[in-house]
Amino acid sequence: MSTTIATDAIEYLTRSDGNRLAYVHTPGDAPGVLFCGGFMSDMNGTKAQALETTCRHMNRAFTRFDYLGHGRSSGEFTAGTIGRWADDATAVLDLFDPEPHVIVGSSMGGWIMLLVALARRERVAGLVGIAAAPDFTEKLMWLGYDKETRETLRRDGMYLEPSIYGEEPYPITLKLIVEGRDHLLLDAPIPVACPVRLLHGMQDPDVPWRHSLALAEALLSADVRTSFIKDGDHRLSRDQDIALICQTVAELCEQIGG
Predict the structure, then answer these.
(1) What does the buried/exposed string (b/e) look like for 44-80 if buried means 16 or more CB atoms within 10 Å of the residue's CB?
(2) 146 Cβ partners below 8 Å, 6+ apart?
(3) How many Cα neighbours within 13 Å face the side chain of 159?
(4) Measured distance CA(217)–CA(44) in Å, rounded
(5) What is the mean pLDDT of the chain?
(6) Is the N end or the C end of the chain the one with fewer CB atoms within 10 Å?
(7) Parent domain of 232
(8) Is the pTM for the entire model greater than 0.85?
(9) Is 97 considered catalytic here?
(10) How many domains does the chain contain in total?
């Protein structure tokens, strides 16, 4: 679900290639919170706006944004890759240097938050993953595709994957799969030292909840807590799910201090 926001609240960051990233920033105390959305999602989603409201009540800085080819940002969605979208998130974080941030990543955003944490270790004070999906292009897409789908990708460079969330299919490019291999994390220790909180619905049809177990095991941080919502789905957008997400972020911010 998305909610329309006032266009005058949106600011734009121009990247070196001329594309513009749309973002909304609410000033406040540190640590700030940066929300990284999922694949083909935008910054107007339920979780992003609920977290913005929570941060306003706490007088805490909050930022949400759209990756290249998403939402109100410029560019074609099919031009995007994991590396480019992680670079987009890092560029938005760099706008608010030097204050520390808690990064919240939903689905693909859980992969993005890890890559940002590795690129800006001194800036990232904590992570909250919501159905975090590191390595999904390889482990959940490529390895899960049948021979025919792989041949379509090799031949056409794109596969239109049906979506259970809408009538429009997801355009999956071969470039997304191949470039994603440069950023795989789960097959080696992940040198993230900050506190990490992982939330995952056990009825998730897109990212199996055991994916969060694998992530928790790979992280080198000693402060990793994983919570499973037995009747929760992938989006975790019910009222009780949103309340848990907001509580988790607020408590982590308080733990970090500020």
Answers:
(1) bbbbbbbbbebbeebebbbbbbbbbbbbbbbbebeeb
(2) none
(3) 22
(4) 32
(5) 95
(6) N
(7) 8-133+195-256
(8) yes
(9) no
(10) 1
Beta-carbon contacts of 108 under 8 Å, excluding residues fewer than 6 positions away, are: 37, 38, 39, 82, 85, 133, 136
On whether residue 154 sits in a domain, the answer given is no
Structure tokens at 219: 């992280």
17 is catalytic: no
Termini Cα distance of the chain: 32
Q: How far is CA 103 from the centre of its chain?
A: 9
* Under 8 Å between Cβ of 53 and 28: no
From 42, 88, 204, 206, the catalytic residue: 204
**Interval 223-239: pLDDT, tens:** 999 999 999 999 999 99
142 in a structural domain: no
pLDDT digits (tens, 9 = 90+) for 74-117: 999 999 999 999 999 999 999 997 889 999 999 999 999 999 99
The CATH number of whichever domain residue 21 belongs to comes to 3.40.50.1820
**Catalytic pick from 41, 107, 211, 212?**
107
Q: Please give the structure tokens belonging to residue 169.
A: 């299919």
The yes-or-no answer on residue 234 being catalytic is yes
